[in-house]
Write a structure and sequence with these properties.
It contains 3 helices and 12 strands; from the N terminus they run H-E-E-E-E-E-E-E-E-E-E-E-E-H-H. Helix 1 runs antiparallel to helix 2. It has 2 domains: about 60 residues, no CATH class; about 130 residues, Sandwich (Jelly Rolls), CATH 2.60.120. It is α+β, with helices and mostly antiparallel strands and about 200 residues long. The strands form 3 sheets. The protein has a 5-stranded antiparallel beta sheet with strand order 2-5-10-7-8, with no helix packed on it.
Length: about 200
């Protein structure tokens, strides 16, 4: 029983205490990116075009028009300038409709910015849809300027550093455990290399 405990601690300890090492990167997708799938009558906007990201955006007032963007990540942000008295409708992963206010108040800077976002998503595929118009409000139109989504990347350099540190700490702790159980380090290392009945005959 003593040997089993020592072996389990050595092999499973790093897995139990190793942190999840990841870094996050934001990716910006402009309205002209082919990953955005447009259905219906979408055109280049003219109102407040200078306030748009990269100087362009697509618009539509057609009710059945959609712009669909599929991405893999943990967050998504909708980018748009402010445009007079306008709103737009979004859905994420076929969820409830979200009405995003794009109305420019008096004296307000109209330049593009994040107007809506969702974070803390499962790290997997997601679908954001922008609709051409809405039955609930006459001010809703389709407005696609840009999207920003956040991807998770493994930080291999940091993982190697922390993995080495965790393995070293586990080794030191295992030596201490040998002392607690009254087993010599030499005997424990021999059993670690060959942990089977034939090695102990």
């Amino acid at each position: 029983m003593r040997n089993i405990v020592l072996h389990l601690f050595f092999f499973l300890g790093p897995l139990l205490f190793a942190p999840v090492l990841a870094k996050y990167r934001n990716v910006t997708v402009d309205n002209t990116d082919p990953s955005i799938q447009y259905v219906g009558d979408w055109n280049q906007c003219s109102l407040n075009i200078g306030a748009s990201y990269d100087g362009t955006r697509n618009c539509t007032g057609q009710q059945d028009a959609t712009a669909t963007f599929t991405f893999t990540g943990v967050a998504i942000y909708y980018i748009s300038p402010l445009i007079g008295n306008r709103t737009t409708v979004l859905t994420l992963d076929s969820g409830p409709s979200v009405l995003v206010n794009l109305t420019q108040a008096q004296g307000q800077n109209p330049n593009w910015a994040i107007r809506w976002g969702a974070s803390g998503l499962d790290n997997g595929p997601h679908t954001l849809v922008n609709y051409g118009s809405s039955n609930t409000t006459s001010s809703a139109v389709g407005e696609v300027d840009a999207f920003i989504y956040t991807v998770v990347e493994q930080d291999h350099n940091l993982a190697a550093i922390v993995g080495g540190a965790v393995a070293g700490a586990a080794a030191l702790a295992s030596v201490g455990a040998c002392c607690i159980f009254g087993q010599s380090l030499a005997d424990w290392l021999r059993q670690l290399v060959c942990f089977s009945p034939i090695c102990h005959k």
